[in-house]
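Hi support team,

I submitted a single chain yesterday and got back a structure, but I'm not sure I'm reading the token output correctly. Could someone confirm the output below corresponds to the sequence I sent? I've pasted both exactly as they appear in my results page.

Thanks,
R.
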Amino acid sequence: FRGTAPGAGIDVEPDNNGNNEIERGNEVNHIIIKNCIFNNCNYGILSWKSDDKNDSRWFRDIKIENCSFNKINQICYSLKGFDNVYIRNTIFLDSSTKYRFDKCKKVIKS
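Hi R., thanks for writing in. Yes, this is the structure output for that exact sequence:
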């Protein structure tokens, strides 16, 4: 694998302003990832939110639909801190770990 760490196809990570301080009050909302092919990456889709109790960023909704994950080295999608996660019709080919959800309030997979 070549590229910049973490090597994700899509990296949802509004976590700092370049000087290791958390940007408070930011919101990630209504993300739709649809009809995508993720091929030969470390992660297909990665989101991260710190465990800092002062982290007031909001991660609201993410929808992943009709996506294919091929030859993903780490995790096809790793989502942390979202209120609502909707997953529909995803395909996994030759990938080690399909998914991980951490501190997501509601996850619906179909």
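A quick pointer for reading it: The chain has a mean pLDDT of 85. Let us know if anything else looks off.

Best,
Support desk
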